[in-house]
Amino acid sequence: MNNVKKIAALVKKYFDNLDKLLLFAVCLCTVLGIVLIYSLADSGTVVHSVYKTQVGSMIIGLIICIFISCFDYKDFAKLWFLYVPVALVPVLLTFTKLGVGVEGTDDVAWLKLGPLTFQPAELLKIAFLLSFSYHLYKVKDDLNNLISIILLCLHAGIPIALIMKQGDHGTALVFIMMFVIMMYSAGLSLIYIIPAILAVPVVGYFAWQYALGDVQKERIMILFNPGTDPEGLEWQQDLGLSSLTAGNIFGNGLFGNGKSNVPEIYNDFIFAYVGYVFGFVGCLALIVVFAFICIKLIADSLVARDELGRNICIGAFSIIFTHCVLNIGMVLKVMPVIGIPLPFVSAGGTALVSMYIVIGIVLSARQHNQKVYRMFA
């Protein structure tokens, strides 16, 4: 009887400390994505297996998320020497014959193992979130020491270089934003921030000359010269923007009106379908939900029990915030097409499960915090 009471007390404590609103918000976005993908399948735009994969990925992701949240995040972070090599090896394998890319591009960001195809960068993203958070935590008292800065830059530079080499510039940009935001949040001194800002034009010049391919350059130039390539690189964005605005204020409804002429509308361009189906009101509502998720992550970081928990929450914020800005900006034609999915909404099993793992780590930081934040609970 006493054991039952102890278990009941532990379960009650778990749900009391669980960031229920954050979990509800991400599940709401996922359900919306599944409904949208099912609508596209109903109209014949995509095969039914796509939304079935999404449902399965949500279930798997949610189970892993809850499982992770039950354990102390410090225990995960300390095992960096195990999970970092595990995350790096699949990325390196993409440069072998096992690596595959999207048709019509020169990237090799996917790994094909028999019938299974997944994006190793998603696993590396999680490993980087934990390991870089732990690195910042370990050097917190010497963060602004030059040696510490060099080692932190090297820590971030290796995965960024690998992802850039794959040709996945969008994901590389996410890693860069994680590095920048987490370093700033950790207390990087102005002595380093100001020179870094001044160096941006120089870095941008060398990136333009040596890191970006002709297609990437053209996609960026199109933003400053709209209408110059309507039958080429602008075609997808023009169709997406047309679909987005076709919904007007309240949209055209879910079924029987699939906008099937937009490439990747179920994936990278699903925000265009949100506009077509639910209109301006639906787009605004989704943006509000994402804003709430980002605010929640920042709120959890402010009450973390230590710098490690704070770093993890800020890292998770930087991932979701960057994904949202790049994806929605891409559909609105204010950002280049760089293949970044909308978190929890776009189709893609690997990306969805990895996002739930990120949320699980944040929930762990919240769950094992002695100063649980009650304002948003």
Structural features, described:
There is one protein chain. The protein is an all-alpha fold. Helices cover 69% and strands 2% of the residues. It has 14 helices and 3 strands. Strands 1-2-3 form a 3-stranded antiparallel sheet, covered by helices on one side. The longest helix has 33 residues. It is globular, with a radius of gyration of 21 Å. The two termini are 31 Å apart.
- Share of helix among residues? 55-70%
Question: Which runs of at least 5 residues are low in confidence (pLDDT < 50)?
Answer: 371-377
**What radius of gyration results from the CA coordinates?**
21 Å
The largest beta-sheet arranges its strands as 1-2-3
In short:
Helix content is 69%, strand content 2%. With 377 residues, it is mainly α.
Q: What keyword list fits this structure?
A:
377 residues; mainly alpha; three-stranded antiparallel beta sheet; globular
Annotate the secondary structure layout.
Blueprint: H1 2-17, H2 20-42, H3 48-69, H4 73-77, H5 80-93, E1 99-100, E2 110-113, E3 116-118, H6 120-138, H7 146-166, H8 169-186, H9 190-211, H10 214-224, H11 234-246, H12 270-302, H13 307-331, H14 349-367
Antiparallel strand pairs: 1-2, 2-3
Helix pairs in contact: 2-3, 2-12, 2-14, 3-14, 5-6, 6-7, 6-8, 6-13, 6-14, 7-8, 8-13, 11-12, 12-13, 13-14
